[in-house]
Amino acid sequence: DSGVTQTPKHLITATGQRVTLRCSPRSGDLSVYWYQQSLDQGLQFLIQYYNGEERAKGNILERFSAQQFPDLHSELNLSSLELGDSALYFCASSVDRDRGSYNEQFFGPGTRLTVL
Amino acid sequence: AQKITQTQPGMFVQEKEAVTLDCTYDTSDPSYGLFWYKQPSSGEMIFLIYQGSYDQQNATEGRYSLNFQKARKSANLVISASQLGDSAMYFCAMRVTAGGGADGLTFGKGTHLIIQP
Q: What is the mean pLDDT of residues B12-25?
């Protein structure tokens, strides 16, 4: 158990809908990262939040957004869903106390999203 | 842009043998971190080992060691005395600083390792 929790575990929805994925980082970790794992694209970094503020963006679509709340939990919002958004979405957390540090990232169990 | 290449899509290895999983990377940034993760069939991502670009010694964690050859830009994972429970996907990943701040991980496509009894 990494200490990172994600809910829900599975999500099945229809095209055009909007969903919210939730992540709670390990106790003491300030950074939250979101990743998407699909058969086509592999594992891709989407976005990073550090202590409530967006720090880095990866291959995140404009239809997707995220935020980190004062208690450090994070939510990833996916809207206008398409079939191709079906994937495993991971949240990871890291200490990252210093800019430029390379602390390991601990991954949650993932949310498997199926868009029908 | 940074890139990770894992050239072995799949490997079959006999139990108790040592295994080397290949990883090459490409970055123009002098400061970076290299990571290996294991993903069993259950889906979770498990951190195995880390190597910093300025580390003089190869990293080791139990049965895992990282063969870091900076000039060749390779960071191979070595698993000694493989066990049936080592069967999983293995991902090599890299992290570089972008504009002074930490960035997300760039992953390779993975190697599917199967340990045979």
A: 97
